[in-house]
Specification:
Elements lengths: L1 H20 L33 E3 L2 E4 L13 E5 L3 E19 L4 E2 L4 E2 L10 E4 L5 E4 L1 E6 L2 H4 L15 E5 L9 H4 L12 H5 L1 H10 L22 E2 L5 H18 L26 E7 L13 E2 L20 E18 L1
Antiparallel strand pairs: 1-2, 1-4, 3-4, 4-9, 4-14, 5-6, 7-8, 8-11, 9-10, 12-13, 12-14
Length: 346
């Protein structure tokens, strides 16, 4: 039984590793409507498959693939009680499980390459230029459930895979809190405590940490080099570039989904036997890559994805252009620790 479990794990990651080698080529963007551009990502060539690594068993790193990792549960053996009690081994990897659109056109589903009229008006996005040459912006966003390893059947119904299909799980156009900074404080009253220059200055340290490895959860209000996690809205107070602003919106939406209990924790010792409530997002549990307008598959320093908060200066160059290159789609990889059963007790 143990041999079968280990063989299934090896086969799954061998398949993913082969896909990672083939993901270095990019597709050119297709013609799209001026106000809504996008396309459905090719799962073989547009996904940064190497981001799934490192693979670990307990605290032991089995294969790193040159990728970054956060802390894993130290014990190799684990046990869970489901319908039955079982003993297993502790597995860790990064699961591509969520997708995010960031767009200035309401109901433009960048990841699907189409615009849908739902019959409800929503604020248009914009970039505002001020007299002092600073900019601010506003974006709409969409949250997708995207268990790509499952719907590609890389490993069918493996206990460590989220099941389901690509599905639109959340649209900010229908959320009255998304375009109102004051109303959004209902979800995050603590945002008022960090809305001051001193707290925001501390985010410079988070930027340094995220650019070296992962950001600090102690600085929970910071999105590293990209800005502030708060407010949970589409308003970007300090717009540096489209890549920086859209990356910030993707991080904010992830934090908002955690706060609304629409996304739960999947990593650490708490996640071995299933998901658990995590109302304050763990920034070290996510890495992400761009899917559109230009799939991020060329490796920089051996990597084609990055943790939340990392500077966009290196990887973002040449990935946006006027009109059609101002709509964005990102794939989120979240850390997954689980207990793979090898012995079951009645």
């Amino acid at each position: 039984m143990i041999k079968k479990i280990l063989l299934s794990i090896i086969l799954m990651f061998a398949t993913v590793s082969a896909m990672a080698e083939d993901s270095g080529s990019n597709n050119n963007t297709k013609d799209a409507n001026i106000k809504c551009a996008g396309e459905f990502a090719n799962p073989l060539t547009d996904i940064c498959w190497s981001c799934i690594f490192p693979l670990s068993i307990g605290g032991l790193e089995v294969w790193s693939g040159g990728q970054e990792d956060n802390k894993n549960p130290p014990d190799v053996l684990c046990s869970c009680i489901d319908d039955l009690m079982f003993l297993g081994i502790t597995l860790g990897y990064w699961e591509p499980a969520r997708r995010v659109d960031v767009t200035r056109t309401p109901y433009c589903f960048v990841s699907l390459g189409t615009e849908i009229d739902v019959g409800s008006a929503a604020p248009e996005g914009e970039v505002r230029l001020y007299d002092d040459n600073t900019r601010s912006s506003f974006y709409q966003a969409h949250w997708y459930s995207d268990p790509i390893l499952y719907w590609l059947e890389v490993m069918y119904e493996h206990p460590c895979l989220e099941t389901g299909k690509l599905d639109i799980a959340y649209m900010t156009e229908l959320d009255p809190l998304w375009n109102d900074d004051e109303l959004s404080a209902i979800l995050a009253p603590e945002s008022n405590l960090v809305a001051n220059p001193l707290a925001q200055a501390a985010c410079a340290g988070d930027c340094v940490l995220a650019s070296a490895k992962f950001g600090s959860n102690a600085l929970f209000w910071c999105a590293g080099c990209n800005g502030s996690i708060y407010p949970f809205t589409g308003n970007v107070g300090y717009h540096v570039s489209h890549i920086q602003a859209s990356s910030l919106i993707a991080q904010r939406l992830a934090a908002k989904m955690h706060r609304q209990f629409l996304t739960w924790g999947t990593h650490g010792s708490q996640g071995l036997c299933g998901v658990y409530p995590l109302p304050v997002m763990d920034k070290t549990a996510y890495k992400y890559q761009m899917l559109y307008p230009k799939p991020q598959t060329e490796k920089i320093g051996g990597k084609c994805c990055q943790p939340f908060g990392r500077t966009t200066v290196k990887w973002g160059a040449g990935r946006t252009w006027p009109v059609k290159g101002e709509h964005f789609s990102y794939e989120l990889f979240r850390k997954k620790n689980c207990c793979v059963g090898i012995i079951t007790y009645k």
